[in-house]
Design goal:
With 162 residues, the chain is an alpha+beta fold. 27% of the residues lie in helices and 31% in strands. The chain contains 5 helices and 6 strands, in the order ααβααββββαβ. A 6-stranded antiparallel β-sheet has the order 2-3-4-5-1-6, covered by helices on one side. β3 and β4 (89-96) form a beta hairpin. α4 (47-60) packs antiparallel against α5.
């Protein structure tokens, strides 16, 4: 599935007021995440550059920034961690300079958000040789949805005599 297909697949079209109110009765969660391989070491090690990429990704996702934190990881592996807390959830990037590797996590709630755009922007900025990505639908089903709820069965441990 391409990111373009992801964008199209995540759009919720509503055709009537009744359907519109039903859509608003549950959480719409979209989670795009992946791994980036072969990142230039100077990018993987640049805290300011990665931080700016995440800030721009927040805008690309149409999310609302609450706070952003970043850390430069010292040691022989090195790297950067950047986490943006957004009103709709979070966007995070973790890099490992020695391995020229990064993980990206863009999770948002609300049909107005586009985490796939945040992911794509970060890929473009970090310039990997190749990358993988996955999408998880984290939408909460409405109460009228045919979802099976399984009750957890209590278990009790019995003492064993020796």
């Amino acid at each position: 599935m391409s990111l373009t297909a992801l964008e199209e697949g995540m759009s919720l079209e509503v055709s009537s007021e009744e359907e519109s109110s039903r859509v608003r009765d549950f959480i719409i969660g979209k989670h795009v995440f992946g791994s980036l391989y072969g990142i230039p070491p100077e990018i993987a090690d640049d805290e300011d550059y990665v931080r700016q990429a995440v800030l721009d990704a927040v805008k690309a996702a149409n999310a609302t920034l609450i706070e952003i934190k970043s850390w430069k990881i010292s040691g022989h592996k090195g790297g950067v961690s950047v986490i943006a807390l957004v009103n709709e959830s979070h966007i995070a990037v973790h890099t490992w300079t020695e391995y020229r590797y990064a993980t990206v996590d863009a999770y948002t709630c609300g049909d107005h958000t586009r985490p796939e755009r945040a992911f794509q922007l970060i890929v473009e900025r970090l310039k990997p040789q190749y990358y993988t990505y996955s999408y998880a639908d984290r939408t909460q089903f409405p109460a009228s949805s045919p979802v099976f709820i399984v009750k957890k069965v209590e278990t009790r441990a019995a003492a064993v005599a020796r």
